Each structure stands twice: as structure tokens, then as C-alpha cells.
Amino acid sequence: MRIVIAGAGIGGLAAALSLHAAGFTDVTVHERADVLRPLGVGLNLLPHAVRELTELGLGDRIARLGTAPGTLAYYNRHGQPIWSEPRGREAGYRWPQLSVHRGRLQMELLAAVRERLGDVVHTGHRLLTVPTDAGSQGCRDAALGACFATGDGELTVAADLVIGADGIGSALRRQWYPDEGAPVWNGLTLWRGTARAPGFLDGRTMIMAGDAEQKFVAYPIGNGEINFIAERRTRGYAGENADWNRAVDPAPIIDLFRDWRFPWLDVPGLVAAAGEILEYPMVDRDPVGRWTHGPATLLGDAAHPMYPNGSNGASQAVLDARTLAFQLAGKPLDEALAAYEADRRPATTALVLSNRRQGPEQVMVLAHERAPDGFAHIHDVLTPDELTEIATGYKKAAGFHPDALNNRPSLSVAG
Ligand SMILES: Cc1cc2nc3c(=O)[nH]c(=O)nc-3n(C[C@H](O)[C@H](O)[C@H](O)COP(=O)(O)OP(=O)(O)OC[C@H]3O[C@@H](n4cnc5c(N)ncnc54)[C@H](O)[C@@H]3O)c2cc1C
Question: Out of the domains of life, which is the source (predicted)?
């Protein structure tokens, strides 16, 4: 089977590796960018994604890129502790959570694709259309395949299956949902950066401080770097600015957080130490009712863009890739695509919606509502039962229970 993947992000590269491991040998990846560079800042791979990368034989390589957080801790905007919980192995998973630089992860996956599949990643290829029955335009000579814009004009690549892993602005998704428009914005703006800075707390803790109006997230990502996301409710409409690489002046952000100097973390100092600040609106898209049309399907952010606050975008793309390859190895094409979508679409739809409800960060929202000026002890404002219920409720809803992951059969294809 000839398989064409559009997009060499985390999802597209994970799909190429998963398909190869499942026995597919005729796979090419076509990326819009002329050159693949290690773009982005930090992201988290949750244990369910680390399991899949480990079963692809990449566990050690990925682990070397970053750090494995052992704790997630929530604070109010005064730096007072609200709740903390173990993460990764410390939480009972057989696989760690890993905090890594997105660009370094992408380059490692790219290197693995080249080692295993050869020279199959083609840059400077921007997907235009896939002539399936629904909404095809242009490239009419392509009976079945994918049509790309290249520096030398249009190129049609024949395929039995096209996978749209082309991110939040997916061309394939737009072909099927032409009226969808810009991503949906929730009014929050994120400023992301990394800084070489001393570790904080025990050096393996991811922290979230603040409330629904203003928040700061920080965690180490290896290499002596701390990744951070500063977040603030802003005015106007910014949904169309969903560009991951928009650099902005750090001065106003440092000013916004000028009072956030905690005994355990100097927030304005950390922002000031960053080489570059990237602005991104907190956007996602409404879940769609169908990912597959004919022999073409969506994967990763193209299928289910979600708020980055759930730390799940890259992880879910990896899970999509492994599930799709597993189904394709065991079933005829149309049945495999149906089984892939039946598994992954409801699961990711639930996550998109759950991230909109702020998931476990509700503890910060409630603490702020009940004690905006701070508290002597968190149990004066939130009972232990309330705290536990919010934390475990999200994990159950999102299917994160350690037992579920630890005992699930592998998605590796035998033989
Ligand atoms: C440059 C960049 C920086 C990012 N930085 C961060 C970050 O710091 N933190 C974070 O949590 N998430 C970041 N993300 C998003 C994160 O990588 C994804 O949410 C997640 O990994 C899911 O991966 P994906 O492969 O589905 O999408 P993406 O990682 O977005 O990859 C999509 C790929 O498709 C390519 N592409 C787009 N349109 C076309 C087209 N028409 N034809 C061919 N190729 C196309 C893009 O150039 C990109 O390489 C970033 C994404 C990008 C593209």
C-alpha cells in the first residue's frame, strides 16, 4: 500500500515510524516548510505517549532529550500551595512523563524516520488538495493521491491512503470543512519561552500558579532550561493569529507578572531571562463528526486541535499514529480507517471539551474565587474531598488512570 503523509510535525513523523514498524514500506512524508528546524518551546509527553514511543524503540532516545517530572503542583497567584500530585512513574505508570523541547523531539523523530525509512521526507511540499469525492478542487489529473504546491509548481503524488497530519491549519480538513474558519479563541493569550535558569523546588516539578484570569506554568525540559507559559485574559479577537512562531517584546509580559516573585520562583526574572517570547492565542476547534473521506483521513492537530493547557496535543498525535498503523496492519483499508476513527475520535473529542472546562485547573479557579487575597491554609477554602474529586475526576474522564494504561494490550504489530 502506498501511503502519503502531509505534515512532518510530531504526528506525521510518528505516523511514518508507526507505519514502518507495522510493516508498511511505501510511505512518504511531505512537509510545507522548506527546511525542518527545531521550532517551538517545551511540551509534555504523557505516559501513554511515552509507552508508544518506547514500543517503537525510541524510549531512551526521547528520555535523553528532556526531564521526567515527578510532581505537578498548583499554586495561587501569591505563590501559596493549593494541590500537588505525583506524575509519571511516581503516579504508578509503567512509563514516565517527559518534558521536552518540541523542536528537539521533532528532530529526533525525523532522524529516526531517515534511519529506518530512508530519504522519504520531502520538504517544500504544501498540501493543496486530496481528490476524494468530497469537495475536491484543483489537481484534477490526480485520480487518487495528493496534490502539493512546490517551488517547481504543482506535484501530484499517487497514493492508496493520504494522511492529513498538517496541523491546526490543515488543508485537508479545510477541504472537507470549508466554512470552519479560523480557530476558536477563548480570550486567553499565551506567551511561551525557555530560559537557562536555576532549577526550582526539587528540580523535577511542573508548577501552575494563578487563576482563570492570569496564570504561569513552568517546568524544566533538560539542558539546564526551564520552559514557561505566561497566560492572561486579553481583549479583542486573536483567533486568526494561531501562528506558533510569533515573537513579541517581553517587556509588557514582565510587567504583567512583576509582583509574582515567590520564595521558590522569580517569575518576572525567568521571563526576562528568556531568549525569545512567542505569543499564541489559546485556540482549538470544535470537534468534527468525521475525519475520513474515502482513502484519506486526519491525524493529530488536523483532526482534533486542543488547548495546549492539557499537555496533550503531542501525546494524542502519537496515539493516533500508533492506532492508525495498528488498524491498517490488521484490516482492509476502509475497515481500518473506520476502526481508527471509532477509537480515536470520541476519545479526543472528550479531551477537547474537557480542556475547555479547565480540567484539574479548577482547583486554582475555586481557590481564587473563595480567597482572592490568599489563605492561611488551603483547607480553609477548599476541602480535601473537593480537591481530590477535581483531580481524580479529570483523570477518569480523560482515561488517564494508571491501571488502564498499564494493562492495555500493546499497539505493536506482532511479527
Ligand atoms: C512550528 C511549531 C511550533 C510549535 N510549538 C509548540 C510548543 O512550543 N508547545 C506546544 O505544546 N505545541 C507546539 N506546537 C504544536 C504541537 O507540535 C502540536 O500540537 C502537537 O505536537 C501535534 O502535532 P501535529 O503533528 O498534529 O501538528 P504540528 O506539530 O503542528 O505539525 C504539523 C506539520 O504540518 C506542516 N504543515 C502545515 N500545513 C501543511 C500543508 N498544507 N502541507 C504540508 N505540511 C503542512 C507544518 O509545517 C508542521 O510541520 C507547535 C507546532 C508547530 C508547527
Answer: Bacteria
